[in-house]
Amino acid sequence: MISTHLVLSAAAFAQAGQGAALPALSASPSNAQPATTQKPDATDAKGHDNSYIIGNDDVLSINVWKENEISRSVPVRSDGKISLPLAGEVQAAGSTPLKLEQDISAKLKSYIAEPEVTVIVQQVNSQKFNILGQVNRPGSYPIATATVLDAIAIAGGFRDFAKQKAIYVLRQNPDGSQKRMSFNYKDVVKGKHPEQNVKLQPRDTIVVP
């Protein structure tokens, strides 16, 4: 009798289980918090750079908090200016990103209460060096962190009759005068006079005679 009762109970349980639905599980735990949009921390933005000087052809990302119609990426024109809705024409070349943020904010105050602007340099196209003479690809190149050796490599190396011991770098001084720095390739690659392999600055010109 006991075994028969167990068999019947098991059968009844199985039959009931075939038609029973499992309780639905919650898609999210009860303690989950809704997503929130946080205001960006201006102190963490790369745009707050008080050393880089914006130049012509640089591409800037302009973000105005909660103003999507104004926020955009803009190139600096050949006249050094950018155009933004409401702000109009703004001088960008010669300013730091931080200074440009302040200038844009000042122009927007007539239309927006307490505008908060972030300027980030997306592409650096203005800072270039020149390399001339007996190299395979003379021209202007983005400076990045190039040294004289880097510049020679970027320009494709020397031509057959390059005077590798008589290279020099021309650099403009703040007073408008020009400084000439010698570079002896043969010595530098042998580890001699490493100080000649200077880090290039914007508008430096390397001459390979």
Q: How would you describe what is shown here?
A:
With 209 residues, this protein is an alpha+beta fold. It has two domains: 42-123, wza like domain (wza like fold, 2-Layer Sandwich), CATH 3.30.1950.10; 128-208, Outer membrane lipoprotein wza fold like, CATH 3.10.560. Helices cover 20% and strands 24% of the residues. The chain has helices at residues 2-19, 97-108, 148-154, 185-189; strands at residues 59-64, 72-75, 81-84, 88-91, 117-123, 128-133, 139-142, 167-172, 178-183, 205-208. A five-stranded mixed sheet has the order 7-6-10-8-9, with helices on one face. A hairpin with a 5-residue loop joins β6 (128-133) and β7.
Features:
alpha+beta, elongated, Outer membrane lipoprotein wza fold like, 209 residues, 10 strands, 24% strand, 4 helices, three-stranded antiparallel beta sheet, five-stranded mixed beta sheet
Taking all Cα atoms into account, the compactness measure Rg is 33 Å
For the biggest sheet, the summary is: 5 strands, mixed
Kindly state the number of beta strands.
10
Structural class comes to alpha+beta
* CATH-level-2 architecture of the largest domain: 2-Layer Sandwich
- DSSP helix fraction: 10-25%
Number of domains: 2
CATH class of the largest domain: Alpha Beta
CA-to-CA gap between the ends?
112 Å
The CATH topology of the largest domain, please?
wza like fold
Shape: elongated
**SSE order, one letter for each helix or strand:** HEEEEHEEEHEEHE
Low-confidence stretches: 1-47
Strand order of the largest sheet: 7-6-10-8-9
Strand proportion, as a percent range, falls in 15-25%
The CATH homologous superfamily of the largest domain is called wza like domain
Helix count from the secondary structure assignment: 4
